[in-house]
Specification:
This protein is of the alpha+beta class. The chain has 12 helices and 12 strands. It starts with a helix and ends in a 5-residue tail after the last strand.
Length: about 450
């Protein structure tokens, strides 16, 4: 062996050893990569960037996650598309074109597993381009997020339950407010009845006595005048009596006194009517369902709120023939009051509030009545029509309203098995129509 051979042989051996080591390292790296691909939680796949995105490679863990062998997923050109839940396909394919402009897309959809059950998958797609920028492949990773979705659904259901609980609490709060309000009105009515009825009673009695005294007094004067005419010897007193009569202006006094007494009696009757209306409005001590005269309820409510309405609107009534309604009339009176006050507030200067009633029957021959409150006010913007019955929603300035009036009214009518409809147009006015069954089911 030459010196060269002696020197070169080990070098050649070293090269062979290095090559063998490199191959071993490549094999080990390949095995590591294959192990990672097959055991990562996400299914790694590649597909062509056209058509139904035929899969060209699927990692081995697809069998663990979905129950499919990678070979069958790659063999079927429509495998991916055919296994997506039909309801999820439109949302995916409507935006899939964005992959080619953005380079990446992420989707969450249901995928049919080998067991026949749909599982939720999180799919991250990445577009691979060649050196010329042309799409050559899509690389994606599919992760099973079924457990997360179930947790989200459970949280959503819990949230719905909480929202239902909140609504029930709100309804209970509204009913409490309503009860407190009606209790306060009832106490006020009882107090007014006690404090006003007594003085009104004796003033009314006194006015009756005064009316009788006035009639007796003027009757006496008339009799005196007749006596003077019957005795001519007293003729010299006639001029004096005429002078005294003119000075006292007996004719005017008689006419005016009668008018004053009549007006006073009428005023006292109005006070008594208002007190009675307040009692009728609140129906102190009555919380049971009873048959009630709706027209009488409207009239008693009008008497209560007339002082607030009369400077803004004139009232027009178009009452139809309606039967008595099984209801809690004090609560319905509260609704009537809210609608009347709101109507007067909606009128900027002066206008008209029209109240009309009628009855009808539905397809099941069940009898209903309707009460309609129309005004010529400012109307309600279309964007607010769907919110006016929400608790605490109001368009009035801060401090001018709580936003509970219509919400409470809606709750009361719903409790009575009825409904409220609203029709409004800005600057032309609003119409609220209440529909109530004459008899309650059950």
């Amino acid at each position: 062996m030459s010196r060269f051979d002696e020197l070169s042989s080990p070098s050649i051996n070293n090269v062979h050893a290095v090559q063998s080591g490199t191959a071993a390292n490549d094999a080990a790296s390949s095995l590591r990569l294959q192990y990672l691909l097959d055991n990562t939680p996400a299914i790694i796949y590649t597909s062509v960037p056209t058509g139904d995105f035929k899969m060209t490679f699927v990692s081995g863990n697809a069998y663990k996650v979905l129950g499919y062998h990678p070979e069958e997923m790659v063999a079927d050109p429509n495998f991916w598309f055919n296994h997506i839940h039909p309801d999820d396909i439109p949302s995916i394919f409507s935006s899939l074109a964005l992959l080619f402009t953005e380079g990446e897309r992420t989707y969450e959809y249901r995928f049919l597993s080998q067991s026949g059950q749909y599982v939720w998958m999180h799919d991250m797609l990445h577009l691979v381009r060649d050196k010329d920028g042309l799409p050559i492949e899509v690389v994606g990773s599919l992760t099973d997020i079924t457990q997360r979705k179930q947790m989200e659904e459970a949280l959503h259901k819990k949230g719905q339950e909480q929202q239902l609980l909140i609504r029930r609490l709100q309804e209970a709060h509204e009913q409490l407010l309503q009860s407190e309000k009606m209790a306060s009105v009832g106490q006020l009515a009882a107090g007014i009845a006690h404090e006003i009825n007594n003085p009104v009673g004796f003033v009314n009695s006194n006015m009756g006595s005064l009316q009788n005294y006035m009639q007796t007094l003027f009757g006496l004067i008339a009799q005196y005048e007749q006596l003077f005419k019957r005795f001519p010897q007293q003729a010299e007193l006639a001029p004096l009596i005429d002078a005294l009569r003119k000075k006292a202006d007996i004719d005017f006094m008689k006419e005016d006194a009668e008018a004053l007494v009549e007006e006073s009696m009428d005023g006292l009757k109005r006070v008594k009517d208002i007190v009675q209306s307040l009692k009728d409005f609140s129906h102190v001590g009555e919380s049971d369902w009873q048959e009630a005269d709706i027209h009488k309820g409207i009239e008693s409510t009008l008497n209560i709120v007339m002082n607030e309405i009369k400077y803004k609107a004139s009232i027009e009534k178009e009452y139809g023939e309606i039967p008595a309604v099984k209801c809690i009339i004090s609560q319905l009176n509260q609704v009537f009051m809210n609608l009347l006050v709101n109507a007067s507030h909606a009128i900027r200067n002066t206008g008209i509030i029209r109240i009309s009633t009628g009855s009808t029957r539905d397809a099941d021959a069940r009898q209903w009545i309707w009460i309609r409150f129309s005004d010529t006010g400012a109307g309600i913007p279309a964007e607010n029509l769907t919110r006016i019955f929400e608790p605490f929603f109001t368009t009035k300035p801060i401090g001018s309203g709580t936003g509970l009036g219509l919400s409470l009214s809606y709750g009361i009518i719903k409790k009575h098995g009825g409904r409220i409809e609203v029709d409004s147009e800005p600057e032309k006015g609003s119409t609220f129509t209440i529909h109530l069954p004459v008899q309650q089911n059950g």
